[in-house]
Design goal:
Number of domains: 1
Shape: globular
CATH architecture: 3-Layer(aba) Sandwich
Distance between the termini: 44 Å
Number of strands: 5
Strand content: 5-15%
Helix content: 55-70%
CATH superfamily: P-loop containing nucleotide triphosphate hydrolases
Oligomer: single chain
Strand order of the largest sheet: 2-3-1-4-5
Largest sheet: 5 strands, parallel
Length: 209
């Protein structure tokens, strides 16, 4: 086992990246953010995220670039991935898949603070970006990002602080890893027991001939 791979998804403003950073630090794992990579590309191009989403809606090169990075990091293991498609792209390489959600009021308030813009600006930009993404992901991948059946746990991040949300996920991960370790130990004991078992028909004890 190369180490746990945890995928954290959710709409914009649900706290994916900040929560993933805290979780990765607490668990001693690496952190890779698809959203940060997308923002980095936007800065390099000198365009807004909405403008970059509009550009990406006509071709899939940008998405494929982010996807390739996500798959590579997942294959290496010991990582917390965050991004809208992180769980879909990591696929079976992801040991745990979390989906974060929050009310639109909470999401937009966070985005406005982060991007230093008004609530109305955050609302227009976010809704436009998410509409483009839903259409793009459906056309290019066939993914329905509103299908949450692939996730192991869904968490409303509007109820707790960022640190509190990260603690909930950390507790879940540690409990999962503990149980997995226990199952592996049982499996090893079973294998060891079979390897030293006597052939059928032999007698136990030093007096056996």
């Amino acid at each position: 086992m190369v180490g746990p791979v945890i995928a954290i998804a959710g709409l914009h403003g649900t706290g994916k990246t900040t929560t993933a950073q805290i979780l990765a630090r607490s668990l001693g794992l690496r952190h890779v953010s698809a959203g940060e990579l997308f923002r980095e590309i936007a800065r390099e191009k000198g365009v807004s995220l909405s403008e970059l989403s509009l550009e990406a809606s006509g071709k899939d090169e940008l998405d494929r670039l982010v996807d390739d990075r996500t798959r590579k990091e997942a294959a290496e293991g010991r990582v917390v991935l965050d991004g809208l498609l992180s769980a879909w792209i990591a696929g079976e390489d992801a040991d745990l898949k979390f989906f974060l959600f929050a009310s639109d009021d909470v999401r937009l308030s966070r985005i406005a603070r982060r991007d230093r813009c008004s609530l109305s600006e955050a609302k227009e930009a976010t809704y436009t970006r998410e509409e483009l993404e839903r259409d793009r992901f459906k056309r290019f991948y066939g993914f329905d990002i509103d299908n949450h059946s692939i996730y192991d746990l869904m968490l409303n991040t509007g109820l707790l602080s960022t640190e509190g949300n990260a603690q909930v996920l950390e507790s879940f991960v540690r409990a999962y890893l503990k149980e997995q370790k226990g199952e592996e130990a049982k499996c090893q004991q079973s294998i060891s027991g079979r390897s030293v078992s006597r052939p059928e028909g032999t007698k136990k004890g030093r007096g056996a001939s």
